[in-house]
Write a structure and sequence with these properties.
Elements (H helix, E strand, L loop, with lengths): L1 E7 L17 H18 L4 E4 L4 E4 L6 E8 L17 E4 L8 H18 L6 E6 L2 E2 L5 H12 L3 E3 L2 E8 L2 E6 L6 H4 L10 E5 L2 E6 L8 E5 H10 L12 H13 L1 E5 L8 E4 L13
Parallel strand pairs: 1-4, 1-6, 4-5, 8-14, 9-15
Antiparallel strand pairs: 2-3, 6-13, 7-15, 9-10, 11-12, 12-14
Helix pairs in contact: 2-6
Length: about 290
């Protein structure tokens, strides 16, 4: 499976309203390091087996993916200088939309160009993905589950993962689904499948999918046919920031305009998740802060 993943990365010391504007860069450095390493752990092509008798490493071909990881940055407003050991694991693309809040649209334009070029050269990507720089994938079957969903329900439907944060306190770890219902009117013009209940059997369990009010995940992943449809529609070039804010608009609005979005129902929420590396959302709940 050939994967093209674009990561929107920005950091400039500021007022701390967002993680990208925190005074201390260390949390951003840690999050980006883990994002890059985790993608290669799960989907990188390099693998080997420890041969104990010969005290050597033997190459293993375990049907790994071909990962093309691109970091979209703006000028020198990033933390890549703090990650010299990871050079070679990604390519850097400079985008300058003028306003850093629009950097995600630059990333989408980069993805469109690379995907269309690969298609023209006869080496298309199987999945094209977009991630904010604090999103962690921890499921090795992530793209297999996406493929299973679209085989079952068609490419007009796009499955978005549930974002989670974890709270570690007093010997307990609690999982929080952070994208609860929010501002239904923002997504109402695009939600035409709220009445539909999609179900899929997975490893002996029935997984339900629904169309909640909040369809933002800070990321999206398109198979080859979906990517072709989306980029041909021109939404990647459309600087429409009418969905909540420019950040949410870049990650989600184009998807809303093109597909019917679904998420795993919370009762089956673990089926497809990504982890938000920060703890910003739990801080919104007074008794947790």
């Amino acid at each position: 499976m050939r994967l093209l993943l674009g990561v929107v990365h920005y950091y400039s010391p500021g007022d701390g309203r967002h993680g990208s504007l925190a005074r201390d860069p260390l949390p951003r450095v840690r999050a980006l390091r883990e994002l890059i390493l985790q993608l290669h752990r799960l989907f990188g092509a390099s693998a080997a087996s420890l041969n104990h008798m010969a005290r050597r490493l033997d190459a293993v071909h375990d049907h790994a993916d071909q990962l093309d990881l691109r970091l979209c940055v703006m000028q020198d407003r990033h933390v890549l200088s703090e990650l010299p050991e990871l050079q070679g694991l990604y390519h850097t693309t400079q985008c300058d939309p003028g306003n850093p809040l629009l950097l995600g649209f630059g990333c989408q334009q980069m993805l469109a160009s690379l995907a269309q070029q690969a298609e023209a050269e006869g080496e298309p990507y199987d999945y094209v993905g977009y991630l904010e720089d604090d999103i962690l994938i921890t499921d090795p079957d992530f793209f297999l589950k996406l493929r299973r969903f679209n085989v079952a329900f068609g490419d007009d439907c796009l499955l978005m993962p549930n974002r989670i944060e974890t709270l570690e306190r007093s010997g307990q770890i609690c999982r929080f689904y952070i994208d609860g219902d929010y501002n239904p009117s923002a997504s109402e013009p695009y939600r035409r499948s709220g009445h539909r209940q999609l179900c899929l059997e997975h490893l002996g369990e029935l997984i339900r999918f629904e169309q909640p009010y909040n369809l933002h995940s800070g990321c999206f992943f398109l198979n080859r046919r979906q990517a072709s449809t989306y980029f041909a529609a021109g939404h990647a070039q459309d600087l429409d920031v009418s969905f909540h804010s420019p950040l949410e608009s870049a990650a989600t609005l184009g998807m809303l305009k093109t597909f019917q979005l679904f998420k795993p129902a919370l009762s089956c929420g673990r089926f497809l998740t990504v982890e938000h590396a920060g703890r910003n959302f739990m801080g919104l709940v007074p008794q947790l802060s």
